Each structure stands twice: as structure tokens, then as C-alpha cells.
Amino acid sequence: MRSIAITVNGVRRELDVEPRQLLVYALREQLGLTGTNVGCDTTTCGACTVHLDGESVKSCTVLAVQADGREVTTIEGLQSNGDLHEMQRAFHENHALQCGYCTPGMIMAATSLLKEHPDPSDEEIRYGLEGNLCRCTGYHNIVKAVQAVAGA
Ligand code: FES
Ligand code: FES
After folding, report:
1. Quick check: 151 pLDDT over 90?
2. Ligand 1 geometric centre to CA of 40 (Å)
């Protein structure tokens, strides 16, 4: 076991992990942050997307030990003082979710995309989110939600 410390959603968390432990399972099972979903476990679907030092990563592709000393933001950390993040609101207002399974990862990827491209075209949004799959195929409204935040 290795002792590591990760700042998760602004709070320093210390935990003991096996070196092979994936970050997504440390978040879900050790820290109880179940908003980050596991869809494939093989870097395909993006359901597990979180921010690592401000950049979106698939947390099933990162070892927990690789996050030692770094900052992680999960979907739970996007709200502030109980108010939804504008991207969370936009997904809600634009009906950008059906079953909701892909939604946390989509939102984390979308916020990261807008940080890099504040005014993306439709095509850039689709390209930027290509690593996130929606099994309900709700892509049209997801793009609309991201456009709404970019436009605001
Ligand atoms: S669970 Fe990580 S990419 Fe699918
Ligand atoms: S809303 Fe169901 S997987 Fe995307």
C-alpha cells in the first residue's frame, strides 16, 4: 500500500491505495464521490472524466498514485455554495441528458473544452467531446448546452 494525499474538490484527502488502484475507484469507493461514473474501464466512454490540475482526464486511465500531491475536481466540486455550475444548469435547461449516465463526464469535459476554446464552433464542440460517448445518443442537445454556456 502507498499513502497519498490528493486535494479533491478543494479539500486535502489522505488515503492508502494499492499502486495498481485506478483514480476512479479511489474517488468512488474510498472517498464516496460516486458522481464520477464507470462506463467501460478501458478509456473509451469518458463517463469517468474528472479534472486533474485543471485538465480533463479519464480517471479510469490514471492511477491514484499519479494524482498524489495534485488537485482533482469531480462533478461534485463544480457547484459553489449549493448553486449549480453554469454548465450543469445549461444541461438541465437544454434537456442535454436522458439516462444521465454520461452526464457528469460530459459536463467535466465540456467545462474543460470551454476553458481552452471559449467560443467554439459546433464542429469544435463535437470534436472536443468526441472522447465522451452518450449511449442515449443525446448529442444534439449536449452541443446546444455547451453553445448556451459559450454564448453567455
Ligand atoms: S470508464 Fe473511463 S473512459 Fe469509460
Ligand atoms: S444520457 Fe444516457 S448515456 Fe448519455
Report:
1. no
2. 5
